[in-house]
Amino acid sequence: MRYAMAIDTLKCVGCSDCVVACQTENNVPQGYCRDWVKETVNGLYPSVELEYRSERCNQCENTPCVRTCPTGASFVSDGGIVLVDSDKCIGCGACIESCPYDARYFHTDGTVDKCTFCHHRVSEGKDPACVSVCPTKCMYFGDMDDPESDVSIALKNRSYKTLAPETGTKPQVYYLV
Amino acid sequence: MQSRRKFIKISSAGAGSMMLPLSFPNFFSDNEEDVSKFKKIPTYCEVCFWKCAGWAYVDNKGDIRKIVGNKFDPHSNGRFCPRGTGGVGMYNDPDRLKQPMMRKTINGEQKFVNVSWNEALDFIAQKMKDIKAEHGAESLALFNHGSGGKHFGTLIKAFGSTNITAPSYAQCKGPREEAFKATFGKSVGSPEPADIINTDCLVLLGNHIGENMHNNLVQEVADIQDRKATIITVDPRLSTIASHSKYWLPIKPSTDLALLLAWINVIIERGIYDKDYVEKYATGFDELKNHVAQYTPEWAEKITEIPAEKIKKTAWEMAQAAPKVIIHPGRHVTWYGDDTQRLRAIAILNAILGSYGREGGFYLPNKGKLPKMPHPAFPKPKWSWKEMMGDKYSHAHYSVANAFIDATHPDNKGEHKLKGWFAVGTNLTTTIPDQKRTLEAIDNLDLFVVVDTMPAEICGYADVILPECTYLERCDHPRISPHREANFAVRMPAAKPKYLTKPASWMVKKLGNRLGLQDYFPYDDFSEVIDWQLRQIGSSLTDMKQRGVKLQPKLNHDLFIKNGEDYKFKTASGKIELYAHSLEEKGFDPLPVYTEHEKPAKGFYRLNYGRAPMHTFTRTTNNPNLTDLMDTNNLWVNSITARENNLKNGQEVWLKNQDGIVSTFSINVRVTERIRPDMVYMIHGFGRNNKMLENSYGKGISDSELITNVKIDPVMGGTGMRANFVTFITEQPRKEEAAV
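The joint structure predicted for all components is written out below.
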């Protein structure tokens, strides 16, 4: 089992529904977020290209955050989902420093928080909140080991990229281009 | 001279004592994810006019935890947009209106004072009686937007006036309604019956789908991208949808009609129009053909700055796809004052491609129906907005909000005058351009009541402010809207009204009691009316609490005109009128004629404005959930323009328009290649100037205050708002220069 997400940049309109859905689903305090939308503009008017990317923890295969955690609070859970055990977290911030994606933040409760791929929903067989709400259905989630999963099919049919592949983290959030 | 109705910053006179700290509701934690623990209440969203149906989830403490779409609803298909998902922020907003307030003069100073509901309603009822005695009931008017306004509509009609208006006509979609009515005999309606899901070619002019988050429309556009349908987007700005389109035509602003006429020219000259369809269903083709002969692509290239070859190529794409082609009418189309004519060109283009009434073009919508609970007949008014408008705007089939302002203004020398206003859920000064004139009209009123959930700017000019509870705390008339399948949706309260807020249905009943109109409001709670309506069709409130949305298949007719069917259009001729006799009779061009529009003076740039997916005008720009996503607007400026004016990315500027109006607040420059050098762009709805809006006060600029050059559409009274030009001010202007 290997959970992954694929996001179609050619369909995403950058509406940020994924962000507000995550905030309400996961009790993210106002002013913070576990996912966010980035806009990239290339070229000169009128030869311009625009890309929106809904970004979050990449649930890496190779996890600098888990390696640098001194207490074992950051760990790899079932399906490769990286989680933080808030009881063990001492809020030292080493994981935040080590993440090339800036995906972790200090929660108001003093521990580190991040995207969980909505582990609580996924374990009930549901999609993460962001995926379930997206009006353009530009996000696909599922098990990479299952060739029939939404994410496997999306990646089979399209070209894609990952973010900062040069860091060697082997991200499991893919962007369809 | 100080105005009698000086704007009052509402934070004075005791309102401060009502301010409560923002309490964060406890959302789901991992051990509370079992949905069976939560109550599921049907609602339809009121964050925008699309009114998607969904479910509010409430925990056992009574907190609204989240709102999600109803999968049986054709507006949402089970997925809400960011505003709907963040709708709970309307309920939790700490800056909400909390209790009735009245304008009172204390020690010579005007203040808003908290009052009881009885005092507020007694005052309003007495003023209404006074207006009726002195000027007649017809002098009372309603401006409305949204579900709350419908209840006040009943009150106004029972009182004896039919002067009801909504800025959504003359400030937004009116021109397209009249253009389609003149051409096809039927206005467009909302949601637009564009069969996007089945189209092969979608053409958008200044219509930024995805930035305007019209939910099922956005969903359908995303779906057709999967099968590589052609999207052609005409916009001087690289909008989100422009970036997703096969063709982006970066048009010179204000020249869209030239492009449309050239497209019609190419399609007719090349003979690639739908000959059978035009012959069977349309009249005036020969006149159209002769008329557009002058509008060649080469002619249009010089005007629009779009190469003639690209005009021909895109016309060919449309014809290839026809009849599965949609030249979308758009929604906010009041731009330059000849908007009905531009929309006529859109209607004509659809007609010659045979897309109207055809699969992948425009469907013929079905509409749900619920019997109305009987009440006494409304009294017949002596005059209505039709008489009030007289010969002006002869093609307006709906009332024109700006004409209501004219009728209220002291310079109205006619016999039909308005003396009392209710504004329900509409922030008039940011909605209707030429704020100065609106305020002069308000100053001339005997009674001005504002009903809202938030201390919108318009509240500052009211005599009485009535705090409405949010859509999550009330029930309203079922939502009945045209769609592919006849359907309706219900809304029930997910929580008790916070503070001293009340639903509009309660307010009008209490006013009705004071005015001797109680028979028009035969309920204690409005849910009784809904239950009665549902029982007439074999359903009930209990049933609908489980469903939220009900389809009514028995009411459905065919969505499309059948091949060879003798379909009669609802025009005078029974045919599609390419040549519009109805316009000619009133002295307007029966075929659209291109006219040049004003251009910016040196050093000035055209001011354009639009939507962000997470905001609905000023309605959401204080919502804590949605301001978390976007809390201000910025000013889009091309790098060439930035260089010319020594502007840097992120720099703070103020704007001055062609009439010398300076923005109240500042805005940060965003240098971007997504915009033409001859214009600037901002998101509408920011620059809030009511201090009671603690979360949004003073953030960004309001485009509305800079729109003072208003181009009135003579056909239907629409207010063209895109003929305004601004220049940059880099030092903070002295206060006396700032706009009031």
